[in-house]
Protein backbone atom coordinates (compact mmCIF):
# COMPACT_ATOMS: atom_id res chain seq x y z
CA UNK A 1 0.00 0.00 0.00
CA UNK A 2 2.88 2.37 0.77
CA UNK A 3 4.19 1.86 -2.74
CA UNK A 4 0.76 2.70 -4.15
CA UNK A 5 0.65 5.98 -2.20
CA UNK A 6 3.91 7.05 -3.78
CA UNK A 7 2.30 6.74 -7.23
CA UNK A 8 -0.61 9.05 -6.35
CA UNK A 9 0.24 12.69 -6.97
CA UNK A 10 -1.66 15.93 -6.85
CA UNK A 11 -1.12 19.68 -6.97
CA UNK A 12 0.12 20.87 -3.58
CA UNK A 13 -1.30 17.97 -1.57
CA UNK A 14 -0.04 14.81 0.07
CA UNK A 15 -1.78 11.44 0.26
CA UNK A 16 -1.89 9.36 3.42
CA UNK A 17 -4.63 6.88 2.59
CA UNK A 18 -6.08 5.16 -0.46
CA UNK A 19 -9.57 3.65 -0.39
CA UNK A 20 -10.16 0.83 -2.85
CA UNK A 21 -13.60 0.32 -4.32
CA UNK A 22 -15.27 -3.05 -3.74
CA UNK A 23 -17.06 -2.93 -7.07
CA UNK A 24 -15.52 -2.35 -10.47
CA UNK A 25 -16.85 0.60 -12.44
CA UNK A 26 -16.13 0.96 -16.13
CA UNK A 27 -15.80 4.57 -17.24
CA UNK A 28 -17.53 5.48 -20.48
CA UNK A 29 -16.74 8.41 -22.71
CA UNK A 30 -19.53 10.15 -24.55
CA UNK A 31 -17.54 13.13 -25.79
CA UNK A 32 -16.45 12.88 -29.40
CA UNK A 33 -12.96 13.74 -30.44
CA UNK A 34 -12.75 17.10 -32.16
CA UNK A 35 -10.88 15.36 -34.97
CA UNK A 36 -13.97 13.30 -35.80
CA UNK A 37 -17.00 14.28 -37.85
CA UNK A 38 -15.95 17.88 -38.33
CA UNK A 39 -17.93 20.09 -40.67
CA UNK A 40 -16.46 21.78 -43.72
CA UNK A 41 -16.64 25.07 -41.82
CA UNK A 42 -14.17 23.78 -39.24
CA UNK A 43 -11.75 22.02 -41.57
CA UNK A 44 -9.81 25.21 -42.33
CA UNK A 45 -9.42 25.82 -38.60
CA UNK A 46 -7.99 22.35 -38.09
CA UNK A 47 -5.43 22.88 -40.86
CA UNK A 48 -4.32 26.07 -39.11
CA UNK A 49 -3.93 24.17 -35.85
CA UNK A 50 -1.85 21.52 -37.58
CA UNK A 51 0.39 24.23 -39.03
CA UNK A 52 0.97 25.62 -35.54
CA UNK A 53 1.71 22.16 -34.18
CA UNK A 54 4.25 21.45 -36.91
CA UNK A 55 6.17 24.56 -35.89
CA UNK A 56 5.95 23.63 -32.21
CA UNK A 57 7.63 20.32 -33.03
CA UNK A 58 10.89 22.18 -33.63
CA UNK A 59 11.04 23.08 -29.93
CA UNK A 60 11.04 19.42 -28.87
CA UNK A 61 14.24 17.67 -27.83
CA UNK A 62 14.93 14.00 -27.22
CA UNK A 63 13.90 12.71 -23.78
CA UNK A 64 12.14 15.99 -23.00
CA UNK A 65 9.16 15.83 -20.62
CA UNK A 66 6.32 17.97 -21.97
CA UNK A 67 3.23 19.16 -20.13
CA UNK A 68 0.22 19.65 -22.42
CA UNK A 69 -2.71 21.97 -21.83
CA UNK A 70 -6.31 20.93 -21.18
CA UNK A 71 -7.64 19.65 -24.51
CA UNK A 72 -4.11 18.92 -25.78
CA UNK A 73 -4.52 16.07 -26.56
CA UNK A 74 -8.33 16.02 -26.87
CA UNK A 75 -10.75 13.41 -25.57
CA UNK A 76 -9.87 9.93 -26.65
CA UNK A 77 -11.94 7.97 -29.09
CA UNK A 78 -13.68 4.96 -27.44
CA UNK A 79 -12.24 2.49 -29.98
CA UNK A 80 -8.75 3.35 -28.76
CA UNK A 81 -9.59 3.69 -25.09
CA UNK A 82 -7.08 2.94 -22.36
CA UNK A 83 -8.62 3.60 -18.95
CA UNK A 84 -5.24 3.32 -17.26
CA UNK A 85 -4.24 6.78 -18.45
CA UNK A 86 -7.42 8.80 -17.88
CA UNK A 87 -8.20 11.18 -15.04
CA UNK A 88 -11.56 12.14 -13.52
CA UNK A 89 -12.41 14.48 -16.37
CA UNK A 90 -12.02 11.62 -18.87
CA UNK A 91 -8.95 13.33 -20.28
CA UNK A 92 -5.40 12.11 -20.64
CA UNK A 93 -3.32 12.05 -17.48
CA UNK A 94 -0.76 14.84 -17.35
CA UNK A 95 2.46 15.07 -15.39
CA UNK A 96 2.25 17.76 -12.66
CA UNK A 97 5.73 17.18 -11.34
CA UNK A 98 8.57 19.69 -11.40
CA UNK A 99 10.62 17.58 -13.81
CA UNK A 100 8.79 18.91 -16.88
CA UNK A 101 10.93 20.96 -19.26
CA UNK A 102 8.35 22.32 -21.69
CA UNK A 103 4.73 23.43 -21.28
CA UNK A 104 2.40 23.95 -24.25
CA UNK A 105 -0.64 26.20 -23.73
CA UNK A 106 -3.66 27.05 -25.85
CA UNK A 107 -4.64 30.40 -24.25
CA UNK A 108 -7.43 32.79 -25.15
CA UNK A 109 -5.15 35.84 -25.04
CA UNK A 110 -1.50 36.67 -24.41
CA UNK A 111 -0.09 40.09 -23.54
CA UNK A 112 3.18 41.54 -24.82
CA UNK A 113 4.83 40.75 -21.48
CA UNK A 114 3.72 37.10 -21.37
CA UNK A 115 0.57 37.42 -19.26
CA UNK A 116 -2.04 34.78 -20.06
CA UNK A 117 -5.84 34.87 -20.13
CA UNK A 118 -6.53 31.19 -20.10
CA UNK A 119 -10.19 30.89 -19.15
CA UNK A 120 -11.75 29.05 -16.23
CA UNK A 121 -10.40 25.67 -17.33
CA UNK A 122 -6.77 26.75 -17.48
CA UNK A 123 -4.04 24.54 -16.09
CA UNK A 124 -2.09 25.40 -12.98
CA UNK A 125 0.98 27.32 -14.14
CA UNK A 126 4.08 27.31 -12.01
CA UNK A 127 7.14 29.20 -13.17
CA UNK A 128 10.28 27.12 -12.94
CA UNK A 129 13.77 27.88 -14.13
CA UNK A 130 14.02 24.78 -16.32
CA UNK A 131 10.48 24.93 -17.75
CA UNK A 132 9.73 26.89 -20.93
CA UNK A 133 6.14 27.91 -21.60
CA UNK A 134 5.00 28.19 -25.22
CA UNK A 135 1.60 29.56 -26.25
CA UNK A 136 0.08 27.84 -29.29
CA UNK A 137 -2.75 29.96 -30.66
CA UNK A 138 -4.37 31.33 -33.77
CA UNK A 139 -3.24 34.89 -34.39
CA UNK A 140 -6.74 36.38 -34.44
CA UNK A 141 -10.29 35.56 -33.40
CA UNK A 142 -12.96 34.60 -35.91
CA UNK A 143 -13.96 38.28 -36.22
CA UNK A 144 -10.38 39.26 -37.05
CA UNK A 145 -9.59 40.94 -33.73
CA UNK A 146 -6.12 40.22 -32.31
CA UNK A 147 -5.45 37.70 -29.55
CA UNK A 148 -1.95 39.04 -28.89
CA UNK A 149 -2.47 42.31 -27.04
CA UNK A 150 -0.71 45.07 -25.12
CA UNK A 151 -2.69 43.92 -22.08
CA UNK A 152 -5.27 41.15 -21.82
CA UNK A 153 -8.95 42.12 -21.99
CA UNK A 154 -9.99 38.93 -20.22
CA UNK A 155 -9.13 37.91 -16.68
CA UNK A 156 -5.43 37.13 -16.31
CA UNK A 157 -4.77 33.63 -15.02
CA UNK A 158 -0.95 33.75 -15.01
CA UNK A 159 1.47 36.69 -15.03
CA UNK A 160 4.63 36.80 -17.15
CA UNK A 161 4.68 33.06 -17.76
CA UNK A 162 4.95 32.74 -21.56
CA UNK A 163 8.39 32.51 -23.17
CA UNK A 164 7.31 32.08 -26.80
CA UNK A 165 4.17 32.56 -28.91
CA UNK A 166 3.62 30.40 -31.99
CA UNK A 167 0.80 31.25 -34.39
CA UNK A 168 0.02 30.23 -37.95
CA UNK A 169 1.58 33.50 -39.14
CA UNK A 170 4.74 33.97 -37.09
CA UNK A 171 6.75 33.25 -33.96
CA UNK A 172 7.37 35.78 -31.17
CA UNK A 173 9.97 35.55 -28.44
CA UNK A 174 8.60 37.08 -25.24
CA UNK A 175 10.79 39.35 -23.13
CA UNK A 176 9.18 39.93 -19.73
CA UNK A 177 10.52 43.50 -19.59
CA UNK A 178 10.79 44.72 -23.19
CA UNK A 179 7.88 42.91 -24.81
CA UNK A 180 7.69 40.91 -28.04
CA UNK A 181 10.42 40.17 -30.54
CA UNK A 182 9.46 38.81 -33.96
CA UNK A 183 11.87 36.01 -34.84
CA UNK A 184 10.10 34.09 -37.63
CA UNK A 185 7.59 34.72 -40.41
CA UNK A 186 5.58 31.88 -41.84
CA UNK A 187 5.45 31.16 -45.53
CA UNK A 188 3.17 33.51 -47.54
CA UNK A 189 3.03 36.01 -44.64
CA UNK A 190 4.44 39.54 -44.81
CA UNK A 191 5.36 42.13 -42.19
CA UNK A 192 2.39 44.37 -42.94
CA UNK A 193 -0.04 41.55 -42.21
CA UNK A 194 1.64 40.87 -38.85
CA UNK A 195 1.46 44.55 -37.88
CA UNK A 196 -2.23 44.73 -38.76
CA UNK A 197 -3.32 41.63 -36.85
CA UNK A 198 -1.16 42.09 -33.73
CA UNK A 199 -2.62 44.23 -30.95
CA UNK A 200 0.68 45.57 -29.60
CA UNK A 201 4.06 46.85 -30.71
CA UNK A 202 6.98 44.52 -31.26
CA UNK A 203 10.59 44.62 -32.37
CA UNK A 204 12.01 42.63 -35.26
CA UNK A 205 15.00 40.40 -34.75
CA UNK A 206 17.93 41.30 -36.99
CA UNK A 207 18.20 37.64 -37.99
CA UNK A 208 14.50 37.30 -38.81
CA UNK A 209 13.65 34.06 -40.61
CA UNK A 210 11.36 34.94 -43.52
CA UNK A 211 9.07 32.63 -45.51
CA UNK A 212 9.81 29.75 -43.20
CA UNK A 213 7.80 26.62 -43.82
CA UNK A 214 6.52 25.61 -40.39
CA UNK A 215 7.28 21.91 -40.80
CA UNK A 216 9.76 19.97 -38.70
CA UNK A 217 11.29 16.59 -39.29
CA UNK A 218 8.76 14.14 -40.66
CA UNK A 219 9.13 11.67 -37.82
CA UNK A 220 8.67 14.31 -35.13
CA UNK A 221 5.68 15.82 -36.94
CA UNK A 222 3.97 12.45 -37.03
CA UNK A 223 4.75 11.99 -33.36
CA UNK A 224 3.25 15.28 -32.16
CA UNK A 225 0.20 15.05 -34.42
CA UNK A 226 -0.46 11.55 -33.12
CA UNK A 227 0.07 12.91 -29.62
CA UNK A 228 -2.51 15.66 -30.01
CA UNK A 229 -5.06 13.30 -31.48
CA UNK A 230 -4.65 10.40 -29.12
CA UNK A 231 -2.34 10.35 -26.08
CA UNK A 232 0.81 11.89 -24.69
CA UNK A 233 1.78 10.61 -21.26
CA UNK A 234 4.97 11.27 -19.33
CA UNK A 235 5.51 8.78 -16.50
CA UNK A 236 8.16 9.28 -13.85
CA UNK A 237 9.12 6.32 -11.73
Automatic annotation (TrEMBL):
<dbReference type="GO" id="GO:0005739">
    <property type="term" value="C:mitochondrion"/>
</dbReference>
<dbReference type="InterPro" id="IPR004165">
    <property type="entry name" value="CoA_trans_fam_I"/>
</dbReference>
<dbReference type="GO" id="GO:0008260">
    <property type="term" value="F:succinyl-CoA:3-oxo-acid CoA-transferase activity"/>
</dbReference>
<keyword id="KW-0808">Transferase</keyword>
<dbReference type="Pfam" id="PF01144">
    <property type="entry name" value="CoA_trans"/>
</dbReference>
<protein>
    <submittedName>
        <fullName>Succinyl-CoA:3-ketoacid coenzyme A transferase 1, mitochondrial</fullName>
    </submittedName>
</protein>
<dbReference type="InterPro" id="IPR037171">
    <property type="entry name" value="NagB/RpiA_transferase-like"/>
</dbReference>
Amino acid sequence: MAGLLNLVRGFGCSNTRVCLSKSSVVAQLHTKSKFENVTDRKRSSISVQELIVKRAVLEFRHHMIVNLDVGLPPFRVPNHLNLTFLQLGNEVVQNPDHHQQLTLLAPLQVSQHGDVAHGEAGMVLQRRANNRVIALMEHTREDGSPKILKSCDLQITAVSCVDMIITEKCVFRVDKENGLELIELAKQTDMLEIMECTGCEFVVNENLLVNRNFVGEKLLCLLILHCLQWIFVAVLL
